[in-house]
Amino acid sequence: MTVLDQVRAFIVGRKPEATCDDCIASRLQLTVRQHANHKTRELAKTTGFDRRGGLSAALAAGGEKPKRNSVNRQLTPIRLLRNRIAHHEPILHLNLPRHRQSALDLTNACAPALAEWTKAHCAFDRTYDAALAQTFLTRADEDAPDA
């Protein structure tokens, strides 16, 4: 069985839960995380696989301690969004629901009770107009890792 087949079987076996490259590399005992990253990028080009940024279900549920690089990689787009807001730069062209979900995933990994409170009190769902936002988004923005 090839590494690609192992990664495919591992992901399919965990559906519908998301699985990050760090978890795949750890569970399949791959020598480097980049090997998992390469294989998941290949799978993302096939039907039935959706590749996104964010924590895996295991990390988000507190099942494993996330690695520092993994958390920093996910915090960078959130920091950049915060900086754009602080400097009054336009943000409507960004995929804001993706940023919100990433922030909630990270919050859930660190403090699940805080994540639940945030979901209950956040006004984003009531105020975000997806139809209006689509006028600012392009296909490239939706596929980009968000800056």
Quick overview of this protein structure:
This protein is an all-alpha fold and 147 residues long. The protein has ten helices and no strands.
Keywords summarizing the entry:
63% helix, 147 residues, mainly alpha, 0% strand
Alpha-carbon Rg, integer: 17 Å
Please estimate the helix content: 55-70%
Largest sheet: none
Total of helices: 10
What is the end-to-end distance?
A: 37 Å
Helix and strand pattern: HHHHHHHHHH
Kindly estimate the percentage of residues that lie in beta strands according to DSSP. under 5%
Structural class: mainly alpha
Shape: globular
Uncertain regions spanning at least 5 consecutive residues: 57-62
Describe this structure in words.
With 147 residues, this protein is mainly alpha-helical. The chain has ten helices and no strands. Helix 1 packs across helix 3 and helix 2 packs across helix 3. It starts with a helix and ends with a helix. About 4% of the residues have low confidence.
List the helices and strands and how they pair.
Layout: H1 3-14, H2 21-27, H3 33-44, H4 57-60, H5 68-86, H6 96-110, H7 112-121, H8 124-127, H9 130-134, H10 139-143
Helix pairs in contact: 1-3, 2-3, 5-6, 6-7
